[in-house]
């Protein structure tokens, strides 16, 4: 926790300008909102660069750069970008000319270098030495540039490209969630090592017992299929540990003697239902503990940022070298720290979204329609109609499951779809009448329903099928639609 002295905040670049204090307070509040560390430069130029670095434009641009450098694998040689995975029908993939993907990649690497240089400058040398991610970041960029230069020097005829293995690191480095996941895995590995060792011993012990129990003999299908040699026995029991081949692995032995099932019951009971569950419990407990620690660290960063902003604004009024108490008089134009913290706790609460007001109509008929179709039960009825639509489609598909596409008569399906689409269109129109355009679009479920209705409406406005009666039998003879210019 920060003390009440202003010296805990780095103000060595203080010039006496009140705007500097205000900029520092704004940046500290932004750090608190985003759960960022306040250990960075706080002079005027660095603050402007800091806010630009964490702006939405730069962060979106950096994310787009990472996406581009990862998608290069689809078009680089050897390319696997094709519409089918069957080698018999797959055409020769397009190979970009030498220098095309390399040019795109060097632009991405330059952006990564700018990102690294900016972040390193903002946090300073002392913090840079503590941050292992940034050290590995510069090593990854340097190795990628060296490998890129080697590729161009060999006229893109390089078989092994090390930088392809490095590319996923750029995604890890830019994602705080993935960093936390890797840290949690690192903390979990020592805890689960003993259980993994116990699983390995359990697997090896039962493998040797199984090879002795199911030795080679006449009509011994268990030995032929699952226990022929050590690798086969080990792989069979390893798959059985996950219950993927259960009970297939024990059927040949069970057919000869039911007593052989005791071997498999003991193996699965101790390995699958005890050790595997113990392993899952340890992993869950470690992730849960790390999640709690991560939440506590985030809350501490937020409180630290708010307290830093408070101290900066307090120093602006009292002076940098003045010593003071945390209790201030409101008559002096200051606010106490507890009130300041409560104020930001209130600002941090979720904002209650208010929908736009409904339109006002003079007609009693329109007022009645507005009252009716703005009610919650209209949405319930709409969901019930959508469920009936799905049930009708499923029923028709089940009835036509044994028929080929040429034998199917889609007349009843088209009639049912036309009825439901007209209902959806009427419901959407009346809701727009009741809520207005702005009020209708303020509900996400209305936006989804409207888009779905428009998508269903587009195939329906095509040229309809012509169905005529058969006369004697009274059945429908389905014909293809005439083109619009048919005489």
UniProtKB/TrEMBL annotation:
It holds the Pfam family Ion_trans. Keywords: Membrane, Transmembrane, Transmembrane helix. GO terms for molecular function: intracellularly phosphatidylinositol-3,5-bisphosphate-gated monatomic cation channel activity; ligand-gated sodium channel activity; voltage-gated channel activity. Coiled coil: none annotated. It is found in: Membrane. It comes from the Eukaryota. This is Two pore segment channel 2. The gene is TPCN2.
């Amino acid at each position: 926790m920060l003390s009440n002295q202003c010296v805990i905040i780095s103000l060595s670049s203080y010039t006496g300008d009140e705007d500097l204090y205000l900029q520092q307070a704004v940046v500290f509040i932004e750090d608190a909102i985003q759960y960022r560390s306040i250990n960075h430069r706080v002079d005027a130029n660095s603050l402007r660069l800091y806010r630009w670095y964490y702006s939405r434009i730069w962060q979106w641009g950096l994310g787009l750069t990472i996406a581009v450098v990862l998608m290069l694998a689809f078009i680089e040689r050897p390319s696997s970008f094709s519409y089918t995975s069957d080698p018999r029908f797959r055409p020769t993939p397009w190979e970009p000319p030498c220098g095309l993907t390399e040019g795109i990649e060097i632009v991405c690497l330059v952006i990564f270098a700018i990102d690294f240089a900016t972040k390193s400058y903002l946090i300073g040398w002392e913090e840079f030495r503590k941050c292992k991610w940034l050290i590995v970041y510069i090593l990854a960029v340097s190795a990628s540039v060296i490998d890129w230069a080697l590729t161009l020097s060999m006229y893109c005829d390089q078989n092994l490209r090390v930088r392809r293995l490095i590319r996923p690191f750029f995604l890890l480095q830019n994602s705080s969630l993935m960093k936390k996941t890797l840290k949690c895995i690192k903390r979990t590995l020592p805890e689960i090592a003993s259980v993994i060792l116990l699983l390995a011993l359990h697997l090896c012990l039962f493998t040797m017992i199984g090879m002795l129990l199911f030795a080679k003999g006449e009509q011994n299908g268990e030995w032929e299929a699952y226990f022929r040699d050590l690798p086969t026995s080990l792989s069979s029991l390893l798959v059985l540990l996950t219950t993927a081949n259960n009970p297939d692995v024990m059927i040949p032995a069970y057919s000869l003697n039911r007593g052989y099932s005791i071997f498999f019951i003991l193996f699965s009971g101790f390995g699958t239902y005890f050790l595997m569950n113990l392993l899952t419990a340890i992993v869950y407990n470690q992730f849960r503990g790390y999640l709690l620690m991560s939440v506590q660290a985030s809350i501490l960063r937020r409180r630290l940022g708010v307290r830093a902003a408070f101290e900066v604004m307090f120093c602006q009024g009292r002076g940098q070298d003045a010593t003071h108490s945390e209790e201030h008089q409101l008559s002096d134009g200051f606010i106490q720290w507890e009130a300041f913290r409560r104020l930001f706790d209130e600002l941090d609460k979720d904002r209650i979204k208010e929908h736009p007001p409904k339109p006002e109509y003079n007609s009693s008929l329109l007022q009645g329609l507005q009252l009716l179709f703005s009610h919650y039960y209209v949405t319930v009825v709409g969901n019930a109609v959508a469920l009936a639509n799905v049930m009708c489609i499923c029923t028709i598909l089940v009835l036509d499951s044994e028929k080929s596409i040429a034998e199917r008569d889609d007349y009843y399906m088209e009639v049912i779809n036309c009825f439901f689409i007209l209902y959806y269109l009427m419901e959407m129109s009346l809701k727009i009448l009741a809520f207005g355009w702005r009020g209708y679009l303020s509900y996400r479920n209305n936006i989804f329903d409207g888009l779905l209705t428009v998508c269903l409406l587009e195939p329906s406005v095509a040229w309809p099928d012509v169905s005529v009666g058969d006369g004697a039998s009274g059945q429908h003879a389905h014909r293809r639609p005439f083109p619009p210019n048919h005489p």
